[in-house]
Model the fold of this input.
Amino acid sequence: MKKILLIDDDAPLLEILAETLQDSLDCPVEVTALECSKTALERLKSHQYDLVITDYRMPNVSGKDIVDYCLANQINNVVLISGECPEFMQTDYQGKIKFIPKPVHFIEFVKIINNKLK
Amino acid sequence: MNKYKNILIVFSFFIFGTALITSHALISYNESKEILQTNIARELVNKGNLVSLAIDADKMEKLINEDNVTEETSKFYQEIHSSLHRAHLKANELQKMFRYVYTTHYKNDGFYFGVDTAPKEDTDKDGKIDHSFLNDKYDEYPEEMKVAFDSGKIQSTKEPYTDQWGTFMAVFIPIINKGKVVSVLGIDVTVHQYLFDLKKLRNRVYIYVFFSVVILLLFSIILYVFLNTNQKLKKQLLAQKETELQLIQQEKLAEIGLLSSSITHEINNPLSVIQLHLISMRKKINDPVKLENSIVRIEEAYQKIQNTLTSMKNFVRKDDSNKVETSMDKIILDTLNFLNPKIKHCEVIKELNSPSTFKCFETQISQVLLNFITNATDAMENDFIKKIIIQSQENNGTLIVKVKNSGPPIPDELLKKIQLGFFSTKEKGKGSGMGLMISRKIIENHGGVLKYKEEDNMPCFYFEIPLEQETTKEVA
Done:
């Protein structure tokens, strides 16, 4: 079973994203959904994940902080979700990070995540 | 059109003034002329009365009624003539005023001369020596002579009259014998002095009118210049006000532009929630509990989007033509609501103690608060602890609103630049650098002041405005 870490500070969105991941992917997954990005960062240090899906705009520890940590620690399977494509995505991180724009579209989201988990 | 309006006002002013001056001059002239005439008439009457004492009325009647010249009438004539002549000379002792002294009487068809003291000369150039003999007819006699004869009362002419011997003013004294008017003593005086006085008077009136009109003209010019300057100033003021309003509106739109990413975020999240739930609901048709949960989540998300759009609309709409009655606490809460996406990562402490209503341009005040708060969040962007304290209070009819943040204090030099406008420490595309300057303008328009200080070791922007504002400031 693949392990996914899902981070978003918006509780209703986090809930339905987790539900979608659990119900609609090709393979069965174990989703850890966290509202607090700071907790998530701690979690990343002690746990192994096959995929990290994170929101961009979050208090204290932002999506960029999460991405930075992942890339620095050879966690290459990262998906960033955001309303606007942040500037850093267009430069340093292009190709390394998959970007999903908001509003999240169900079919596209499921397709991208399935691809990432193959 | 306004240009002509001013000219019209000044022109009317000038014409009206001129009319006033002229009528005043005319009235004064006529009054003075009347006084002059009255004085002459009084003198004439006085002296005429004296001269008339020289005539023996009884002898005079006999002289007139006798058709043929007899020894007696000839004697009477000589007597009256010489006493009149003496009186004439006596009356003329001081001023050589009297020209002719004579008597006339009315008989059948007109006036006839009686006794005349005129020197023997031919002033009317008719080939006859002037002194009138008894019963010479007087054709163009003045009206006053007849009045004096008919009424038995002394008459004097008001205006100079002209007959075949020249232009004179005259007094007519009836000679009464036994209650019956038998003759009229006429005294003609020269009018040189009167005409000279009148001319002097007229000249004085001309000078008065001339100088008054010149002064009036000067006043009119001053009035015109004043009106024009006033109009220009008004126009300038209006234009300035207009520019100011445009600036405020522009800045508001700029702020919204800057907030747009926060706003999209705020709409995108619930949109995502709605979309994902709608898809997932197909699979939950047989699970009423999960279905119910989805419906609730969709409703919540829908409400969230609506709230965001409403608060944005409230902020953008330009209804600042009139002041509205509201309370500062309500404005603060509305603004925070609108700013929610921007400040949700900050700890916001509200200490609101200003529930009283007052009149203001609501969205403008809201704009000031928005400026304070976005400045605060921008200043704390890289800080781990982000704290904003918003305080409102009322003190003796003055509203005080403070916005403090946990960011670094602002150095004095920087503060000066910020307040002048067009200056920003933020990266390009993050602000116009005009926010604080425009905020100050808004507060000043509300009769208040905007200031900066450090409070509890925190940078603090605050403003004070009176609850009761001057109504003159309500021009928008």
Observations:
- The interface with chain B takes residues 10, 12-13, 15-17, 19-20, 23-24, 57-60, 83-84, 102-106, 109 of chain A (CB under 8 Å).
- The beta strands of chain A are 2-7, 29-34, 51-55, 78-82, 98-101.
